[in-house]
Structures are given as C-alpha cells and as structure tokens.
Amino acid sequence: AAVPVLSGLALALGLALPTLALENGLALTPPMGWLAWERFRCNVDCRADPQNCISETLFFEMADRLAEDGWRELGYKYINIDDCWSAKQRDAAGRLVPDPERFPRGIKALADYVHARGLKLGIYGDLGTFTCGGYPGTTLDCVKQDAQTFAEWGVDMLKLDGCYSSGEEQAEGYPAMAKALNATGRPIVYSCSWPAYQGGLPPKVNYTILAEVCNLWRNYDDIQDSWDSVLSILDWFSANQDVLQPVAGPGHWNDPDMLIIGNFGLSYEQSRSQMALWTVMAAPLLMSTDLRTISPSAKEILQNRLMIQINQDPLGIQGRRIVKEKSHIEVFLRPLSQAASALVFFSRRTDMPFLYTTTLAKLHFPEDAVYEVQDVYSGKIISGLKTGDSFSVVINPSGVVMWYLYPMVLPVQPWHVVRQQAPGGSFRPVLL
Length: 432
Fold this sequence. Notes:
The chain has 14 helices and 16 strands. It has helices spanning 8-12, 37-40, 56-68, 71-74, 106-116, 143-153, 167-183, 194-197, 207-213, 227-239, 241-244, 268-280, 296-302, 305-311, and strands at residues 32-35, 78-80, 120-126, 157-161, 189-192, 216-218, 253-255, 285-287, 320-324, 329-335, 341-347, 354-359, 370-375, 381-386, 390-395, 400-409. The chain has an eight-stranded parallel sheet with strand order 7-6-5-4-3-2-1-8. A six-stranded antiparallel sheet has the order 9-10-11-16-13-14, covered by helices on one side. Strands 12-15 form a two-stranded antiparallel sheet. The longest helix has 17 residues, at 167-183.
C-alpha cells in the first residue's frame, strides 16, 4: 500500500503509518454507522418488548432513521446487527440461519432494504463454538461456509467476536476468515475482536499481522453506558499509545468501541467529550443508541460536520495525548492532511470550569507558523494565532474544547525541525 506523505508535524512527533495493510481497499477512513449491541444487547423477548428486541423490525426502523434524519449524508452508512440474531441451531446443510420468528424475511431481504436506502449492512459472528450470547459460533471448519453465506446475503461488514475459542484457534481462524471473505468476491469490511481476547498488547498481539488481516479491531473491554467506562477505555488507549497509535491508518483502525451518546450514562459535557476524543483517536464512529427517540442535543453532537470531517481525514493518523497537567487538564493532538491539526483540551476536573492557558509552542507546533483556529463545537474562529501567542480556553468539568487549526502562514523553517521555544514578547491572550 502506498503511504501518504505525512505532514511535518507528524514527522516531528515521530508518527508513521505502517506500509502493510489488508488489501481489500475498504475502510480507508474509519467506518461510520450504527451498531445494536450497547443499547439493545441480547434482548430477544419480542412478545414482551417488540419495540426494542433484536428483530428485523428494529433494523428496518434504524435504517429508515439513518436514511431520513440526515445521518447517511454525513457518512453514517453502516447498520450493524450484533449478537443474538440467529436461530439456536444451524440448518440441515450446516448453514447459519436467522431466527425465523424475529427475522421472518431473512437477512437477504434486510440487506436489500438497507441497500435500497443507500446504506450498508453489517452482521456479527463469533470464532468459537458459541457466540458470547450462546448462539451458534463459527468453528474453524465453518469459516469458508459462513463467509460465503454472509456474501450471498449481501452483507457489507462482519464483526467477528472471540468467545469460546482458544488463542491457537484465534491465531488460525481470524486470518482464515480474512482470506475466506476476500475469496467471496464481495467487499466486506472485517472487524476483529482478536486482540481484545489476547490482552490487546505485544508480545501476545502482533499488530503488524493484525493490520494485514483486519480492517478494524477491538483492543480492549466492551463499552458500558457510563462515564467510568469511557474513561477506562481512554486511559488504556492513552497509557498504551506508543504501541497503538502507529498501527492505525487507512484500512486498519484501532476500535475503542461504540459511541454511547444519546443513551443514559453520559451528561451533555461527557457526550461532547466522547465524540471529540473518539474523533481525535481516529476511531470508527459506530453509534449505539435509539435513533427513533434521540434528543436534539445528542443528535447535534453526533452530526457535527467539522467533527466528522476531522474523524474522516484521509491521512488517517491516530492522535495522541501530548500533555497531562497536574491541574487534571489533558491535551490531545491529531495531525491532519494539508498541515492542519486537531487539538482537544480535556478536563478531568469535577469542581468548576477551568481556565487553561498555554501556547502552540508548548504543544510542539513549529515556530513561525500562523494559524486560523475554529472551535469545533461553537464554530468561533480565531484568525492569525501565532505559535508563540498565549491563549486561554475555558473547559467545563469532564468536558472538552476542541480546535481545528489550519495554517495561514507556513513556518520558515522546515516542518521536520521542531524546536520548543519560550513565547516571545508579543502576548495576545485569546479567550473563547
């Protein structure tokens, strides 16, 4: 795979993209869409709860919402089934079949419905004797057959979980499924849970091999509907960013799990934080919420155009945490194409809004550069911010301020020579 030329800022930070990737030409930017699991789980009681059970009705209705409520145009294209969709047994020919009561028209009809709305359908499998929810798994002898079944149904993405299998079976089965999916001739994005079952880190996880096998992968625990869960994922990704950050890129992404914005566990500020932090981490944006009843404020966060543009940046470099202050403020930086950048100022404080003052020089930006800055959430623009200028942002407790920075004047010195200097005498505080 050709490696895009990185911006000087990326080089200065020692970032690079791996040159090897799964050659299916898919997921060149992080996949976007909707996934059933976090919000709807394994609710199969359609008699007691027909509105929220895992059935074709739920997916038909979510497809309508993606198509009609402005999601599809923004890039939210995938509508993904998770666990508990199938019958409890394979059919006489050994094929997976959907539960006949909950999916009476079958998966092919659902895929046709989704495709007719300009969307794509994802499905769930598990490399093991059973899925995590106790439904038929894909054992090694069934890999080719199941790949063929999914392709015949018109599936566009497969999430392959790892319950009820050994490390040895996973080491054989995950690459085998990649091969089997490619052999069907149908473009199917491949999402693996492989590293999550091996602790997510080397030496047990070989990210070079993983990037050749999968388009995206779950590295860590399932997200739950709570701020604690979001923080635990963020902490793990930040603590291990030296390992994780370099392995992400076009066609192969770290997946910190679903967006839970619009559910019950996050405040408004925390919802804005998850969106900004997932975006700066180049994470897939897979919402798991009820799009039929989503609040206007949650919808506004998830449909922020500039945020999505940053998430979908074609360079595909994952951001990093670059500052961790004693004041419990953290700063994340993501280099973007055309020498642009995204900055997230994140507060872990729980007392009151915090006035954070710094300079771009302290954040490793090249001297002599001048930037236009747009606040991603408020839309406010600062023009002519120099690297040495002092500025301040007010960050709410468990909230973020997110900036998109675009160079108006490129630095005189080459981009790969970045020196940190104390700011000069021209202080122009900027308050947002």
